[in-house]
């Protein structure tokens, strides 16, 4: 059975790239009838925060993810200590007492000679008695993994194919600050082994960790899982996605009014290609189509215009009641969105956060300059035209105030070639804006009484 994990560190808000990793893992598990594990990797006490863990969990739930098992690394310290002790007892790990200053000087010397910097093994030959005595005296130390000489590392990445590393270039690396403070490349291996992870699907930026983790697997005499490294998400200039191009957290996109289903659809297409040219997929359709073999090796550019387009598509397909309910959360409590108002602005927004600006004039008429009422600067006849429209509206019943009926009645009074002279000042009078929905949609939303009051306000300005 396939067992996969999403293992974020709660050192910041859930990154949009992390969401894609979670999505691909979750989809893979569901497609194969496997297990999806959420593992919070919070062993860095200085940077991990409860609020970031809460954000991760809340964000994943908002997107509809459900996990079969949940773990928190800070609850598993005794397990890591047990495995560190096993490696120490077996001679596979040893304490290193070299100071940071000594190590830096050593690395600088290697670099100056054109040699790849690595630990020179100064403490590798210390006996157990010597190390225990020095630890007992309170000397500071780290634990290093003892790497066998001439060790070769080769694995088949499910996306990138065969990958090889020379372990001699890595050297004996640090796996823990001490027996109580294990580091990432050690804890992740212990967890992946004990949780029976079969596939590690993660970002390409983790590929440099893979040889070290394979070495730890070998040290505990266990086989590593299969690896699949996803292409990076890139900025428009093809640099690694960062805050240079705006906030990269999931919460910012949700707060900005992007729909969860549009976000998932968009992220699925960053590096993965379906078998046909479709671009709009439900989560079930993505699951049916998904295959690791269809993931590209090259980076995927984050195109905000594509996300805007997808979000518009999902808003357009949404039932009226659902759109209004979601949009209402972006408006003041005393601005109640009606079906007519929603219909007037729905195709004018990319995301729900834009709806407040689009509908504000329905609730508060802006104080616009009288000159805005003039069609192409023509002053004459504006007042007369608005009076004619007001008279036509007075003859209509409140129940006839649909956009279609309003258009039918007002078109009758507009002379040929004078559409702009009538509809421009009417639309400005109703909205107070240079750009807005059409006058018939606005009047249908405002109702007869409010529409006439706004026309009278324009006449007073004139």
How is this structure best summarized?
The chain is an alpha/beta fold.
Write structural notes for this entry.
It is a single chain. This protein is of the alpha/beta class. Helices cover 44% and strands 12% of the residues. It contains 19 helices and 13 strands. The chain has helices at 16-31, 50-62, 77-89, 100-112, 128-136, 184-194, 210-219, 250-255, 260-268, 283-289, 304-317, 320-328, 339-345, 355-363, 382-394, 403-411, 419-431, 439-446, 448-461; strands spanning 3-6, 35-40, 69-72, 93-96, 142-145, 152-157, 161-166, 174-178, 181-182, 199-203, 226-230, 233-234, 300-301. It has a 4-stranded antiparallel beta sheet with strand order 4-5-8-9. Strand 8 and strand 9 (181-182) form a beta hairpin. Helix 9 crosses helix 11 (304-317). The termini are far apart.
Question: Please, what is the average pLDDT?
Answer: 93
Strand composition percent: 5-15%
Strand order of the largest sheet: 4-5-8-9
What's the end-to-end separation, in Å?
Answer: 77 Å
Backbone shape = elongated
Could you name the ranges where pLDDT drops below 50 across 5 or more consecutive residues?
Answer: none
Task: Name some characteristics of this structure.
13 strands, three-stranded parallel beta sheet, 19 helices, four-stranded antiparallel beta sheet, 12% strand, alpha/beta, 462 residues, 44% helix
Strand-helix topology:
Layout: E1 3-6, H1 16-31, E2 35-40, H2 50-62, E3 69-72, H3 77-89, E4 93-96, H4 100-112, H5 128-136, E5 142-145, E6 152-157, E7 161-166, E8 174-178, E9 181-182, H6 184-194, E10 199-203, H7 210-219, E11 226-230, E12 233-234, H8 250-255, H9 260-268, H10 283-289, E13 300-301, H11 304-317, H12 320-328, H13 339-345, H14 355-363, H15 382-394, H16 403-411, H17 419-431, H18 439-446, H19 448-461
Parallel strand pairs: 1-2, 2-3, 10-11, 12-13
Antiparallel strand pairs: 4-5, 5-8, 6-7, 8-9
Helix pairs in contact: 1-10, 6-7, 9-11, 13-18, 15-17, 15-19, 16-18, 17-18, 17-19, 18-19
């Amino acid at each position: 059975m396939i067992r996969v994990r999403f293992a974020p560190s709660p050192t910041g808000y859930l990154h949009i790239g992390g969401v894609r990793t979670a999505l691909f893992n979750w989809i893979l598990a569901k497609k194969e009838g496997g297990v999806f594990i959420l593992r919070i990797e919070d062993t860095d006490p200085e940077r991990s925060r409860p609020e970031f863990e809460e954000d991760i969990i809340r964000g994943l739930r908002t997107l509809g993810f459900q996990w079969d098992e949940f773990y928190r690394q800070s609850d598993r310290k005794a397990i890591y200590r047990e495995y560190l002790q096993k490696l120490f007892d077996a001679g596979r790990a040893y304490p290193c007492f070299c100071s940071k200053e000594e190590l830096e000087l050593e690395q600088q010397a290697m670099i100056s000679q054109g040699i790849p910097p690595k630990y020179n093994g100064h403490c590798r030959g210390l006996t157990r008695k010597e190390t225990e005595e020095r630890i007992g005296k309170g000397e500071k130390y780290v634990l290093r993994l003892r790497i066998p000489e001439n060790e070769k590392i080769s694995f088949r990445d499910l996306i990138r194919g065969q990958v090889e590393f020379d372990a001699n270039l890595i050297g004996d690396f640090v796996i823990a600050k001490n027996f109580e403070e294990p580091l990432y490349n050690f804890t992740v291996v212990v967890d992946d082994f004990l949780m029976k992870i079969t596939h590690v699907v993660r970002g390409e930026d983790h590929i440099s960790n893979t040889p070290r983790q394979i070495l730890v697997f070998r040290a505990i005499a266990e086989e590593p899982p299969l690896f699949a490294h996803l292409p990076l998400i890139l900025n428009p200039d093809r640099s690694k996605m960062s805050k240079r191009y705006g906030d990269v957290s999931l919460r910012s996109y949700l707060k900005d009014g992007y729909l969860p289903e549009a976000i998932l659809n968009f992220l699925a297409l960053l590096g993965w290609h379906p078998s046909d040219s479709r671009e709009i997929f439900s989560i079930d359709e993505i699951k049916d189509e998904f295959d690791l073999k269809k993931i590209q090796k090259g980076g995927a550019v984050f195109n905000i215009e594509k996300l805007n387009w997808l979000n518009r598509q999902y808003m357009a397909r949404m039932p009226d009641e659902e759109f209004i309910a979601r949009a209402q959360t972006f408006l003041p409590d005393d601005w109640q969105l009606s079906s007519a108002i929603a219909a007037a602005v729905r195709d004018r927004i990319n995301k729900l956060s834009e709806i407040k600006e689009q509908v504000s004039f329905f609730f508060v008429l802006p104080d616009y300059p009288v000159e805005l009422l003039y069609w192409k600067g023509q002053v004459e006849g504006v007042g007369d035209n608005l009076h004619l429209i007001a008279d036509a509206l007075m003859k209509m019943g409140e129940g006839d105030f649909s956009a279609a009926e309003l258009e039918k009645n007002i078109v009758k009074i507009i002379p040929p070639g004078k559409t702009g002279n009538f509809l421009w000042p009417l639309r400005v009078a109703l909205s107070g804006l240079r750009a807005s929905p059409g006058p018939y949609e606005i009047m249908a939303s405002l109702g007869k009484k409010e529409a006439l009051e706004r026309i009278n306000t324009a006449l007073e300005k004139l």
